[in-house]
Amino acid sequence: MNIGLPHFLTVSAALFALGLFAVMARRNTVAILMGVELMLNAANVNFVAFSRYVQHGIDGQIVAAFVIVLAAAEAAVALAIVLALYRNYGSVHADTAQSLKR
Amino acid sequence: MELLHVKIPSWADLQWWLPELVLCLTFLFALIGDLLARGRRPVVPFAIAVLGLAVAGVLAVVDTGAAAPAGGRAIMGDLVVVDGLAAFFRLLFLFAGLATALFAWTSEEIMGRRREHKGEFYALTVLMTLAMMVMAEARDVLMLYLSMEGVGLASYVMAGYMRTSLRSTEASLKYVVFGAVSSAIMLYGLSLLYGMTGSLRFDGIRQALLAGGADPFGLLVAVVLILAGMSYKIAAVPFHFWCPDVYEGAPTPVAALFSVGPKAAGFALMIRFFYSTLAVGANPAASVALIDAINWPLLVAVISAVTMTFGNLVALRQDNVKRMLAYSSIAHVGYLLMGFVLLSDDGLAAILFYLLVYTLMNLGAFFFVVAVNNHLKSEELADYGGLFYRMHWTVGVMMVIFLGSLTGLPPFAGFVGKLYLFMAVMDRQWFWLVILAALNSVVSLYYYFRVAKVMILSRPAAGADASPLRLHWLQYVVLACLAVPTLALGLFFGSFKDLADASIRAMAGG
User: What is the ipTM of this complex?
Assistant: First the structure.
């Protein structure tokens, strides 16, 4: 069996869908952030696969490297905020933060 | 086939990027200054930030991009472009950043006795200003994403600046979760677009689309995903959930900056991205023909109509002034999107002009709330009773100017701005949109002037503190710097409208 572009796209679509599901279904903020990581990596798989099969260059791979770094930075900021949430509310569940009017 | 399309930047490029360079250094020095002045009143980081923003502003005025070649000057390995559009937004963001830094100095929420790491606030303001400027300059998918995340990361931290406050923490949590998800969605859309066009450059994407062959359905999915991510940045319905909560929970000076900065940057990005990839040319009738699968004008017109109506109707029911202003800012995004319907030069120039006016009047209204909050520790409308008589009369008058301009009443600048936006879609087909926008303006009259009515006609609640409010001299200066142009732009708008027109023409390359 030849592994080609469709296989990569299928994996990435599955990753994206799983990430989106985790974001919408989970109430634990850490789990939500893990879902976001999945979505970002789905895009990364796309970028790398397209750069190999469509563009025949390395632009997409460069983008993927930048996205990995940014995802780490974002995780650092987001986890710091989750820590502040835990200090203030004593829980990391998204539902506990209910002090603003809705 | 060229293996590597990314060019190595040359040092000579930096001469066109002086404002950004100055802000980079300002950010670093402000952080170091904060470390040195730990525990004391953070005069050093504040002074560095204000000085840096002012110097960058002067440099941005000196180099307005007028000398740039047609179509702009691509620099830094062709990742960013410096042209009329970039020059316009540079000035806008530097002004907003400077005004926010100055006003935050007098805010109890930022500088109060219990707050920690006060100096970092100014460093973050500078960083956010820098990232917003790059957003307006990006001409590459990579830079688009990096600059958007740069603005995002700085703003998540700023929203949660009051670490021990429950509301501030909740605001930053909501901001970071919604922001991370929507930027991931946008990145996925961008990756699909890259796959279908084989290019990361906006002009390369355009050429590939012109050559045809891209799957219409795939393009539809990609464009909708990208539009979703950008709608989040400008808080257009249905990606507005975070907006009222974040504005209410974040410190008020931060909310003021959020309500103008990232929104204007989002519009700058949308203008450059969609105009340079999708629009066919100056002819409005033929534009947006690159994608047959999407009825672009109808899509944007519906988003615009729903956004303005939703924002205005929910704002009617708000008793918290800050939350009311949050919904009003959603409504203003609806008005601004009107200029985006046809992707025509006129419409985009109208957006630019309105963003300028909106920055002045919205910052002014939010800063008034900051000044009041310093004393009352409240943003509830009920506490605003008789406020007009408790402060120097000029401050009350300036707030009425901001509210009148936000409503769009003549002779204030908001009226002129709205007029240009209405004219951009004043076409038989889009009559309904103009009529709806006009009706919306009438609705907004009620909730804006309810604030003025309570301030002037109501009495303070019995037993409540009715002592006069004393404002810091810096607050008078900044408010005047916002109120005077709001008034003046309503009467002498010609040269600034010409500037907006010229900026769009320079971007269009003609």
Answer: 0.95
